[in-house]
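Example 300, ligand norvaline.
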Amino acid sequence: MKHLLKLSDLSGDEIINILNLADQLKYEVKHGISHKKLKGKTLAMIFTKSSTRTRVSFETGMYQLGGNALFLSDKDLQIGRGEPIKDTARVLSRYVDGIMIRTFKQSDVEDLAKYGTVPVINGLTDYCHPCQVLADLMTIREYKGTFKGLKLCFIGDGNNMANSLIVGCIKLGIEVSIACPKEYMPDAETVKWGYEQGKLTITQDPLEAANGADAVYTDVWASMGQESEAIERQKVFKNYQVNDSLMAKAKPDAIVLHCLPAHRGEEITDEVFEKHADEIFDEAENRLHAQKAVMVTLMA
Ligand code: CP
Ligand code: NVA
């Protein structure tokens, strides 16, 4: 494994290896065991979109591993003034040991990897969010002890989260059920792959998707870059909410996951969110441990 551009590039075993290392690093950091596996290394972090979790977890993770992280906003970089990604890739590769990028186009992430000579990590694109799903899978295993026989449902927009959840869950044998309006389906190729490779259902009925689920997942109705569609989306998605009636369809011990940030009263009610806050904030914490595992795997 040279990069983390999207989960479909990884085998199930590679995902499991990252999760196992993440568990180990989490144990070590909680027990005060020093693990400076990236001493003297630098990660460049390019952000073309906002972030709380991704920025802070990568930066802190790099620090805990003995390395250094550089926050680079596109507003300050020459990328913002039109310098091509392929030149940025070749320049940064002369200075740093890895590049994390959060941006719009998946092709920009792929180009960074193509033209650079250091590992590239996708910190979210419009197409996918692999780091988030590694943390999600880690959290699911912590709560359920296994991936075997589990069902995850995703309620809402067929967006970057839905795409990565389909791939990550199916690679580990988790059944996936997505409920979304028909104009807001996940990526067509990813859906086709999911149908062929595992147990995937796509429905417009949130209650059907939630039926018997072990994990209930949701995300914002309007993602970053779709702010101008927010009002229209509030109408289209109004029935795609994780609330008490939806939770009544899931297994009684179902966990609730949300990549965050959350819009209470839209994709999730405040009641359900607060009832499952421990799971949701464990999930957020696991971004740190999962990404440290990714960085050690790629950069050590
Ligand atoms: N879930 C997630 O990626 O959060 P941020 O947008 O805060 O990084
Ligand atoms: N779908 C959301 C995820 C945020 C972590 C977005 O792209 O804005």
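Summary: The mean pLDDT is 98.
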